Amino acid sequence: MTYEESFKKIQNIIDNHFSSQKDEFVPGKSRLPLVKPSFGADEINEAIDSLFSTWVTMGKKVKTFEERFASYLGVKNATMLNSGSSANLVALSVITNPLFKRQVPAGSEVLTPAVTWSTTVFPIINVGLKPILVDVSLEDYNIDMDALEAAITPKTKVLMPVHLLGAPADMNRMMEIAEEKNLLVMEDTCESHGSEIGGRKAGSFGDLATFSFFMSHHITTVEGGMLVTNNEEIFEMAKAMRAFGWIRDLKNKESYAKQSPHVDPNFLFVNTGYNFRPTEMQGAFGMHQVGKLEKFIEARRKNHFFWNKALEEFSDYLILPQERKGTRHVAFAYALTVKPNAPFTKKALVEHLNKNLIETRQIEAGNMAEQPAMKILPHAAHGDLPNSKLIMKNGFFFGNHQALGKEEREYIANVISDFVRKNT
Q1: How far apart are CA 227 and CA 235, in angstroms?
Q2: Which candidate in 163, 193, 217, 304 is catalytic?
Q3: What CATH class is the domain 49-291?
Q4: CATH 3.90.1150.10 is the classification of domain 294-422
Q5: Active site includes 401?
Q6: pLDDT tens figures, 118-155
Q7: pLDDT tens readout for residues 50-89
Q8: Where are the domains of the chain?
Q9: Cβ distance 279 to 58 under 8 Å?
Q10: Virtual torsion, Cα 363, 369, 370, 371, nearest 10 deg
Q11: pTM score > 0.70 for this model?
């Protein structure tokens, strides 16, 4: 049997499997998980093609995904990595590297929101910088811009907003502050693919930005991440650091080779680096996923605004996630924070949702300042972080994804509504 015949046979099996998959939703009996993977036959067939070819490490398909993702965002350059966490570490490694023209000195402060994920904060410490945790807004869970501006000191060198849960931060004001204070801006956009400010994609404003393609995110490569930038210096350094610090992917690799003729150019290292290369199967997934992103966003937004309308009558007790004027919220998940004056607790509401098979979880890592790991790590908090503390105590979210439809979203709204009415 030829390669073409073998692949066609496998392709037909996979196509038939996914075309016949139809999950029937039965209210009160079907579990509603946080995540429903967004890949299918297209991605799997493309990955199998890579396995058949035996070229499984980073190659043409990774490059194709990088180009398509950069085009989607409207940026010049994209570098794929094996995870969003790796993307954050490489990004921070670039701007602290001695070869970077605007090198951020060791011990400098990085302002970032207190409510975020651990691998936003930990890489800051990994590269010898100090995270300063800033309070967030209860409106959209993003960094509070007044608090951020007040937190700037002579030691501040980097602003690191996190576009949380699909809501973009106020990047127009962020960039004005950065320009006035001569600060670098690194956007963590890991869970806000396609979010917009004034029609411009989040991740295209700062000096550099990162994305994650973990299973739960808008598009997935199972594991995977991306570092994007319009800065050619950052782009070249990121490519080197992604793979050991060698020259293989660099634009000026021939020039580097001429400068060190005694070293085999295939193993010529010009900087420090990691092994954070993605696989070709991850690139295969990404190639197809990026073209589906807008459809996924549309489905998530439909759910998000349905819940906002359905639960608006309970706004005396629940803080609902808002879409700021002039932005596009891409609804990574649906977050709720129980107000301190509510006649019920977060615990009781979450238990009610879980009892009705609606999976929930805390918002990111909660308030990072309250995580035990921070006791042994250099950091500081700006102020008392009242909103972050409230979110840690009373905030949670349930899943919102492309596979949730009319029946599921109505069921979730009804379960919450019934609970609130019975407890008020």
Answers
A1: 8
A2: 217
A3: alpha beta
A4: yes
A5: no
A6: 999 999 999 999 999 999 999 999 999 999 999 999 99
A7: 999 999 999 999 999 999 999 999 999 999 999 999 999 9
A8: 49-291, 294-422
A9: yes
A10: 80
A11: yes
